[in-house]
Amino acid sequence: MGVNSVMELVRTGVLTTYFVLLSILSIYGAHRLWILVLYYRHKKDVPQPQGDANYLPVVTVQLAVFNEMNVIERLMDYVVKMDWPKEKLEIQVLDDSTDETVKVASAVVDRYKALGFDIHYLHRTDRTGFKAGALSEGLKVAKGELVAMFDADFLPTEDFLRKAVPHFADKKVAFVQGCWAHLNREFSLLTQVQAILLDGHFVFEHTARNRSKAFFNFSGTAGMWRVAAIADAGGWEHDTITEDADLSYRAQLKGWTGIYLKDLVVPAELPVEVNAFKSQQHRWAKGNAQVIRKLMTTIWKSDESLHTKLECWFHLTANCNYMLMVVLSIIMVPAMIFRAGTPVPVLLMTDGPFFLLNAVSVGLYFGLSQKELTDNTGWTKRLKYIPGLMGLGIGLALNQAKAVLEGFFTDDKEFKRTPKYGVDANGNSASKRAYKVPKSLLTFLELGFALYYFGALLVAVYIRKWASVPFLWLFFSGFSYMSVLSLADVKLFRRLAMEEPNDDAQSAANFVQ
Q: N or C: which end of the chain has fewer CB within 10 A?
């Protein structure tokens, strides 16, 4: 076989793969538009509670924490302010910490216990099951018929229980999920883009799925569960690291229902450092891949509607697209070179529909999510971050692809929590401890992709491939942003965002790592 024949085979293989990937990604782009259709079709179908102000079951609030010295006191200060009869409210601090959080948390518990609150401190030295294990241990001694759960960086509102609990008067309801808001949205470009990403999920996905009678997932915090439903579904299991999605799907497969309350808004802190953000996203992607391994066959074999099965599929497999993005990132430049002589009208006819569908679906989906927020003040000003969101998604591709592969092909169930700094919207921090996420060697590969796309930009300009420049720039900027900020000196971030930790705190932080 001659050189020309080999090159033609390579060309055919690259271009075939290129268009197959674009087709699959476009299916998910079309699904985003379908979610918008479902949302607006059911927008007025707001869940109505069967209970009223006289429905007052005993509620246990579970606060599962691990090394959260910076935010644990703030969390408990908000929890005790929730409006609920004192004699019907129990608070459990489920602390697996290995640092000074133990002293801080136990001291705050003692303080509120002296004020008459039914509050208990449970400390484990064996972290079996991680968060799921801690929640299970707490349930063994919980007094409540219902349990509310808040992660350490959340600030539950005073009326949270008053709004959520009445829905449990319907004996079929297993869980109620609130909507996440963002304390430090305005902190940086990273937090602005993160906020929009989460808004799309909480404004559109949860609402559309729940109100169209499909399954939706409990998000692990800012929500409540019926204890009997947890037990009936098999309890908290720790064979995945997204124990929240796992339990909520198992409960719904058993015939229980969930309620999503879009207007029950609970503020929380977004990760302000890129490595922490990547660690969080990695955990979610890996956990969903583990849930696919565990439950997807069961879901497809169940008697649920095709609509429900498809929505479960699109939710759980969304992160698999990052593997496609990695392959697309590799072959996009060769595809550009192989088609260097193709007339622009032909390119617009072949590539245009794919890119247009994905760009329009992303723009509408995340742009409209800002308009549909409960508090949408200044939503139009945030639209300028949509291109950054696209770049961030590309920059995350390697991180997320690795997570999905680990979820599918390894049995690693270690839960790596996201460090919190107690940062507010103004960059102020109550940080006493500089928790860090170690840099990953994958970051250097991200830097390699950034350099690859910088070279591709130069080639595109040289061969006058102007139509490719915006797309190449998007890939270059996404990988550059992720790699450069991941490799940046964390001390610079601390100087900008918080006080430098003292020597004792720094030594302890090194110990934790």
A: N
